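Methods — Computational structure assignment.
A single polypeptide chain was analysed. Its primary sequence is given first, followed by the predicted tertiary structure written as structure tokens.
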Amino acid sequence: MNDEIGGRQRLDAIQQFRQARRRARLRKLLSRLTGRSDDLLVFDEVRRTLELAHPKLEARKVIPLDSIVGTVSRYHDFNRQFNPLSDSDEQRWARVKELMETQGLEPIEVYQVGDVYFVLDGNHRVSVARQFEAQTIEAYVKEFRTSVDLDPGDNIQDVVLKAERAELMEDTQLEEVRPGVEIKVTLPGRYREILEHIQVHRYYMGLELQRDITIEEASASWVDNVYCPAVEAIREHQVLEDFPGRTETDLYLWLKKHQADLEKAFDRQVPESDAAVDLIRRFGERFWNRVRRLRDRLVGRDELPLE
């Protein structure tokens, strides 16, 4: 009788594993369609990006399963929802599931970074628990201190961007001197470009005023006299409509570069408003949509008249 029950439990566990594998394949397809990564965060990458030092002493507590976003070593074996990625994992996964139901399992071991967690030991236990829609799991937690707030939905690019933004704010004190101004970019490296703009502005302020300029003074002046006027031009000409998925700060950087390119080409000053109009004309989505529609019409793909 016990053998019969054990056999049914093993078959049920294998069936649950195969359901989890089907979910993993579906998630992979959705990831390709949306362009949003479904990979687990790799702890070593996050540790390097955030320059994490040493964890605090270990504590035992109950943590939310949805806040487990990465792993130390098994990132090729599970996706972001901890669905298994390999059929060869079937027997081990099924065994963990059986143990969970018959004997219970030891707490997992995790690293905590902000409000998210990375599995040090217990990836299969997390996978089984998530398969059965558990909300929490018991864990031994070692916490790394960081000023960067990580969210469960963050991918590695989000982590990099948050780290770079935190560095910019620390270097420039922008949040203190101009707390109401949003500075947000969508690609790594651009916060460092913002810092370069402020440093150049600081240099010329010093030449003009014939004294040393603090970083706080330079940051405030850059916001008031450089950044905000450019953003006003971006808003006036509704430039964001032509660059979906980007931010005003992204467009500020593109606008200033485009303005500098125009001034070099024409050997004269170019107002930001004119640069904004030209940026739309050359690179805006509406312009290129019209070009594509014209192309399709000329080759007989579109019988509709152009707007």
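Note: The first helix runs from residue 2 to 34.
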